[in-house]
Mannitol dehydrogenase domain-containing protein (Rhodopirellula sallentina SM41), 503 residues
Amino acid sequence: MNIKQETIPLNEENLHRLPPDVARPTYQRSDLKTGIIHVGVGGFHRSHEAYYTDLLMGDGDSQADSKAWGICGIGLREPDRRIASVLEKQDYLYTLIIRHPDGKIENRVIGSLIDFMMGIDDPGAVIDRMASPDTKIVSLTITEGGYNLDAATGEFDINHPDAQHDLINPEQPKLVFGYLTAALQKRRQQGLPPFTIQSCDNIQHNGDLTRRVVLEFARHQDEELAKWIETNVAFPNAMVDRITPVTTNDDIEYLENEFGLADEWPVTCEPFCQWVIEDQFVNGRPEWEKVGAQFVPDVTPYEKMKLRLLNAGHSVLGLLGSVYGHETIDGCVSDELFATYLRRFMDVEATPVLDAVEGIDLAAYKDTLIERFGNPNIKDQLARICLESSSKLPVFLVPTIRENLAKDGSIRFAALVIAAWCYYSDRQVDQHGKELDIVDDKKAELHEAAAGTSKDPLSFLKITSVFGDLAQSQRFTEVYAEMVNALYRNPDVSVLMREALRA
Ligand code: CS2
């Protein structure tokens, strides 16, 4: 039993008081310059980019060069105020709790984050910081919704009130794109080199998407600026990966009980970590390859592999598991039926339409995925996985179905996932009647379409912004309609999962 020690609040001054099992920065944080401005300091940024950068400054490289890459976080919205105040109180330090499947835990205080600013409090100060010659990279984790796309056209939604506001008030922007163009305008006027804009979102060709929306927005502001950005700014594509569940009170209590460490907002993650980046930076970059990142000429096969196996696998378990009554990903994987179903989906539907990735053994990748999902110490809630399914499934799952339809491949494992999603959106309960908390920008639309299933079994499938023209495929709709009807008769989804496995 641990004897209750005196609690040590996490901050710079107390670092030397931490017990030896808690790793901490081995470099002088006060020597760091801010080379990276990061918008969207959620758990994922803190387990991934900030982690790689911390590794580089500590174990990876003791040279002066890595000292140029301190990170300043930016919060643009009012809900970011909580993380802002926690980080400020803790001198921007936080603990990363890396939980291995065998129970081993690595605890590491991350020091690469050295400042934080709230855009709404002083937009001019954030623009100036981005425009500072020290800033070489502005990176983003703003989620799919942050790219402000018009659902119907897929283009940047210039009619959004915030976009209109930013056009009229370029010095007081609300959208990240307003900040980026205002800062780039300053750099251009001052004859400074641009910065690289690096998306860290889990989106296919995240750099290309960012380029497109930044340019679309800039063209509405100033055609010349848009041209300058097009010629001078780089937007590298990247595949990012590390499972990072939502921080819980247990994580906070664990640090306090084990080490007497008071950290108000630690981050928990798995040991696995991957970052594959196209090497297109216009103003230098950290040597992240020294600490495990991969720089490649073309990220396409890596991102496809990840989105269609890992993320789609998550959605398969998330939606079927939610209707069944499971709560976490590891809970699903320890259920043999779910584990078998997942593997068959990956082998029979996802893999046959993937490109080979040089140097990657897909069979081994899938084995590792199942191990990662099964990590019993990462209690990744299905509620997190099912968040915003309407922007995830069109990328994770629908392309696999479409490509299998084109080559007469199997579609039944994916079809059942969509049938389960329909039931979930309509009834919003699991098979036992327990309420499911659905969080989705399109929640109302999904619900309305799903509620029409008893009259028209294809009602849900007719949401074209999610499924495209899938409702036109006779082969798909036959399989799907039978499944959705059966699920409404008996919501025990395991019966249909077994049937799909037998077919
Ligand atoms: C998950 C991802 O949100 C989801 O649906 O699949 O957050 C996943 O955990 C990460 O992409 C892992 O890198």
